Give the backbone structure.
Amino acid sequence: MHRLIAPLVRVAVPVLAAASAVALGPVAAHASPTDQGTYGVPGGTALFVQTDDVTANSVIAFRRGPDGSLTREATYLTGGRGGVADQAPLDSLASQGSLTYDAGHGLLYAVNAGSDSISVFGVSGDRLQLRQVVPSRGQFPVSVTVHGDLVYVLDAGGTGAIAGYRVAGGRLFAVPGSVASLGLANADPPLFITAPAQIGFDPQGRHVVVTTKANNTIEVWTIDHDGRPVHHVSNPSAGAVPFAFSFDDFGNLVVTEAATSTVSTYTLRPDGHVSALTTSVGDGGTALCWTATARGYVFGANAGSGTLSSYRTGADGSLTLVSAVAASTGAGPIDMTTAEGGRLLYVQDAVAGEVQGFRVHHDGSLTLVTTVTGLPAFDGAGMEGLVAT
């Protein structure tokens, strides 16, 4: 990945991590003081963008129209600081899933990599209310995932770690005995290529999966009934620099490989081992890192070539490239998110400082429906984190 996107590499801004204090009340900038409502009520009319500002991290809220258009509404402070991975080329956190929506509880989780913390917002339409800021229990948190009442965060700095929390009353409570080390040897902040990229639950919530990039592994922990990791398997990746992943409609694990701009599929066994099904299918782009599933298709964002590609998967784990260039984007496409049951796909263009929205058609083709500009463009630091409700 480093070699492929070297022309885009810029010097990262070093950020010192600090312990985070707990914030109980809402903190908002540019939000109407008359905004009222019941927070924590699930609903789907918004899109949220994390600025990852190294001084004061924040989340920008957009109202999402029926046609997929976006209207900027407010900016909400997270109560923490963003961070920048060492030598990050265009993606400050070098990860997927730094901003996560919990539809079951009507909550939004944001990582504060520079403060080693997680912010918890109540969501009401396109409005947010800061409820809590909790320590990530590690260094440089970059990704967060949720299944049912269980939340796990991935810390990329130092040895790397995962840590679990329970959701109760719209707040997070640390699960005792849930911190597990990845055994890495990173600094804080970590070098972007050696930092782990994503954490996620399998569809049943029985396992937590982590990709490690330069270590070329897919780490899997079995989670017990108390929410603790009780069994760990380190699986070799089929391709070099496994980055982002998702699960397709058949429950197969789909993993991007940044070094070769390829995608592989796996089956995840009950014992935590993964078996490759289809390996390293390329899209001809550069730095294929981020991924999202929509309407039965898997989409990949090629950060180095400014394109989105599309794949089709089968129940047997077969993987077919549908379109090498399903759409062209602004410079530096990174995180993606879907809305309307996968009929809308949004992409965060880090270098361009914009978000684009596409209509996803039944054949996997994409039509641009909206572009929002004026967001923090990467200049050694920049936004990362995107989610729709």
